[in-house]
Amino acid sequence: MSVLVNKDSKIIVQGFTGSEGTFHAEQMIEYGTNLVGGVTPGKGGQEHLGKPVFNTVKEAVDQVDADVSIIFVPPAFAADAIMEAADAGIKVIITITEGIPVADMIKASDYIKDKDCRLIGPNCPGVITPGEAKVGIMPGFVFSKGKVGIVSKSGTLTYEAADQVVKQGLGITTAIGIGGDPIIGTTTKEAVELLMNDPETECIVMIGEIGGQLEADAARWVKENGNKKPVVGFIAGETAPKGRTMGHAGAIVGGDDDTAEAKKRIMSECGIHVVDSPAEIGKKVAEVIG
């Protein structure tokens, strides 16, 4: 069992023939991901990396039954790519693109809310189910199969947490990089919920950062639903000055509850095992799994 992507997922790359799309598609194919083709308008009918190129996502869905898309489209066109994927019937839309204008994301987010799809990102590292599918830009060798799920706003800390968990001999079920923009498709709570409902996931690592309410919402949901599985939490940005964007466009402290300190307090009150340093994540997971 896994969430979002697995060995049966039929994955396409939007922005397939561009430099980013090409590089990461090669890595995904090498990993063993079931990549069935890609989309570059105007290049339909060609082959790239031994896979078919389509002019539209609809063609890819009709011809190769694509159900997952990963987007490497420049920021100005990325919201359109998201909406096109949703229109065509893609079930999981993973958007790597950074710097999509907020106004565009408001439009795309509103457009897809009634569609039968799930958006991950934008500005995220993607999703990996070790040994089955790597749909993103993460280094595949860091991850191995196991029983710990990861939800993270930070790409780098996703890899760090995975490395520590694997070194504890526990491994990963699915790691979900949700992205650090102000408007994202799947929230921390929704990603945690997916892993809570996955029978193979025995523990969840939740990595957040300053800014917004996502981690507090997730923590309260975990408590309200009876703390069914242990959750280990870390919040990045404790030393960030108020009012300044730190790394991610969404990482800006607005109110008192946006600070790392406030988030850690809320998480602890909700029964989450909070660590003060990312270096402690692996040990804490091993401790709570027992």
TrEMBL record:
Family per record: Belongs to the succinate/malate CoA ligase alpha subunit family.
SMART domains: CoA_binding (SM00881)
A GO cellular component entry from the record: succinate-CoA ligase complex (ADP-forming)
Pathway assigned in UniProt: Carbohydrate metabolism; tricarboxylic acid cycle; succinate from succinyl-CoA (ligase route): step 1/1
Entry-linked Gene3D superfamilies: NAD(P)-binding Rossmann-like Domain, Succinyl-CoA synthetase domains
Stated name of the protein: Succinate--CoA ligase [ADP-forming] subunit alpha
Group of enzyme by EC: ligase
CoA-binding domain segment(s): 4-100
BP-aspect Gene Ontology terms: tricarboxylic acid cycle
EC number(s) recorded for this UniProt protein: 6.2.1.5
Provenance organism: Galbibacter orientalis DSM 19592
Known catalytic reactions: GTP + succinate + CoA = succinyl-CoA + GDP + phosphate; succinate + ATP + CoA = succinyl-CoA + ADP + phosphate
Record-linked NCBIfam families: PRK05678.1, sucCoAalpha
Keyword annotations from UniProtKB, A to Z: Ligase, Nucleotide-binding, Tricarboxylic acid cycle
Lineage of the organism: Bacteria, Pseudomonadati, Bacteroidota, Flavobacteriia, Flavobacteriales
Record: active site: H248 (tele-phosphohistidine intermediate)
Amino-acid positions noted as binding CoA in the UniProt annotation, renumbered to this chain: T17, G18, S19, E20, K43, I96, T97, E98
A molecular function (GO) term: succinate-CoA ligase (GDP-forming) activity
Self-association state and partner proteins as the record states: Heterotetramer of two alpha and two beta subunits.
Gene transcribed to yield this protein: sucD
UniProt xrefs under InterPro entries: Cit_synth/succinyl-CoA_lig_AS, Citrt_syn/SCS-alpha_CS, CoA-bd, CoA_lig_alpha, NAD(P)-bd_dom_sf, SUCC_ACL_C, Succinyl-CoA_synth-like
Positions contributing to substrate binding: Y159
Function: Succinyl-CoA synthetase functions in the citric acid cycle (TCA), coupling the hydrolysis of succinyl-CoA to the synthesis of either ATP or GTP and thus represents the only step of substrate-level phosphorylation in the TCA. The alpha subunit of the enzyme binds the substrates coenzyme A and phosphate, while succinate binding and nucleotide specificity is provided by the beta subunit.
